[in-house]
Specification:
The complex is a heterodimer of chains A (204) and B (278). Chain A is α+β, with helices and mostly antiparallel strands. Helix content of chain A is 59%, strand content 17%. The radius of gyration of chain B is 21 Å and the shape is globular. Classes of the chains: A alpha+beta (204), B mainly alpha (278).
Chain lengths: 204, 278
């Protein structure tokens, strides 16, 4: 009797584990992704517009939000491209730390300059295994709105942004090309890139 | 193209006289300078090719498509200097002193005058709808839109059909990346397309017919419109460019990548599949 129950439990456990591991990492569904961007936009705007907090407070909260919503590890690996494979553990670790500082200072600062222009999320669509959500930001000088596309990967309960494309220019592609050039022009040495990133973070 | 058929040479127009001797001396000097520059570029300006046994390096080299990178970087440096010392002060003044509405009216006016050229390129590309849109915009905005100051048909797509796009449509490869003095970065095909657009511009023909002179084969009216457009575009995009520059480890490389992606967008908007290298 005990044996039978144990084997039933064992079978159930194996089945449950099998189901968990057998499921592929699902891409986020387009509607969920669009809603995520809408919510993120609203949250970011309210953080930036909260006059009851100091500028420093608002920036800190905004940066936290930024780091949570972007899959910075995935982006950093994509950006280093083929040099990720040949980099040592130590180089990879330092690179990812420096990359996060670099990205936060470049983009969180820029997004923080947002001053109430209308932000409209249009829709999500599947693209190459990920989901791309299109949105637009009205310009202050009255020109045509700026198109911003957000690339996300799943799962549905925890989507993350892996690229931002502004008027057709992809953040991760641009940085990948730029970092590769820095490494190439220094004899293929990843340390040259790390030096440049270190110097950049020193400047703040 | 059209003007050279009329028996007046560009060199004559440039020197301002039909003086054969002056023309010959100028021609020799220009040829010597061009030869020196080309040889200098060939010797000093070529990027080093990666070893053939490193396929990923070779692939990256091809993707950059920048065989004269050192030379391009030199021109890029000169352009940056010109931009900082000359273009920037003027653009900041324009952007900050001229009211937004006036800036928009100026942009609309200049864009409207380029619509006939867009119509021609759309036609050359076999794009009937695009031709109709461009012509329609021109006619309606020139009349109802008060000489093009107002865009009264914003819902009509406004696509900038250029000759580089026309060449791409007929399968011409983009060619190497080249940074032109003052004009900035282009793929070789698109830089050449720019020159053809300058010569083809119908607005230029109209002024040529009214005896407005030309410089280097392109009517002065076309020069005026083109340079004004470049200036106003720069003034409105200056902040974005500054951000890009400040956040770059290597602004030359960043700009090269951005230019390639923007060009792919432009080709897509003209209904042309972007080049494989993009």
């Amino acid at each position: 009797m005990r044996l039978a129950r144990r084997s039933i439990l064992a079978t159930a456990a194996v089945l449950a584990l099998g189901l968990t591991f057998a499921q592929p990492a699902a891409a986020v569904s387009p509607d969920v992704a669009a809603q995520f961007i809408r919510k993120l936009g609203a949250e970011a705007i309210s953080v930036l517009a909260d006059k009851s907090k100091t500028q420093a407070d608002r920036e800190a909260t905004f940066q936290k939000l930024f780091v949570q919503s972007f899959d910075i590890d995935e982006i950093s690996q994509f950006v280093l491209g083929r040099y990720w494979r040949t980099a040592s553990e130590a180089q990879r670790a330092e690179y990812q730390k420096l990359f996060q500082t670099f990205i936060v200072s470049s983009y969180a600062a820029k997004l923080g300059q947002y001053s109430g222009e209308k932000f409209t999320v249009r829709e999500g669509r599947v693209d190459d295994g990920d989901v791309v959500v299109s949105s637009q930001v009205e310009r202050t000088d009255g020109g045509p709105p700026v198109r911003v596309d957000w690339r996300l990967k799943g799962p549905d309960n925890a989507p993350k942004i892996i690229d931002v494309v502004v008027e057709g220019v992809s953040m991760r592609l641009t940085h990948r090309s730029e970092f590769a050039t820095v490494i190439q022009n220094n004899g293929g040495n990843v340390d040259a890139l790390l030096n440049a990133l270190r110097k950049r973070s020193g400047q703040g | 193209m059209l003007k050279s058929n009329m028996g007046v040479s560009s060199a004559d127009r440039l020197t301002g006289a039909g003086n054969g001797v002056a023309k010959a001396r100028l021609g020799t000097a220009v040829r010597r300078l061009a030869a020196t520059l080309l040889i200098g570029a060939a010797l000093a300006g070529c990027a080093s090719r990666p070893p053939a046994d490193d396929p990923e390096a070779v692939a990256a080299y091809r993707e950059n498509n920048d065989p004269i990178e050192p030379f391009n970087r030199a021109v890029f440096g000169v352009n940056e200097g010109l931009e900082f010392w000359i273009l920037r002060p003027l653009a900041v003044t324009y952007r900050d002193l001229v009211p937004n509405m006036v800036q928009r009216m100026v942009s609309n006016f200049l864009d409207n005058l380029t619509q006939p050229l867009y119509a021609i390129n759309a036609a050359l590309q076999g794009n009937g709808k695009g031709t109709g849109n461009a012509l329609g915009r021109f006619i309606i905005n020139s009349t109802v839109g008060v000489a093009g100051l107002f865009d009264v048909v914003p819902e009509v797509p406004n696509v900038k059909y250029d000759f580089g796009g026309t060449l791409a449509k007929y399968g011409v490869e983009p060619g190497p990346y080249i940074v032109l003095p003052v004009l900035g970065p282009y793929a070789l095909r698109d830089g050449g397309g720019l020159v053809v657009d300058g010569v083809m511009d119908p607005v230029g023909w109209v002024f040529w017919a009214r005896d407005v002179p030309s410089t280097l084969g392109i009517n002065n009216a076309t020069w005026a419109i083109g340079l004004s457009k470049a200036f106003t575009n720069y003034a409105s995009n200056m902040a974005t460019i500054d951000e890009l520059r400040n956040n770059s480890l290597d602004f030359y490389a960043t700009l090269r990548s951005v230019q390639r992606q923007r060009r792919a967008e432009s080709l897509r908007s003209q209904g042309i599949t972007p080049d494989k290298t993009n």
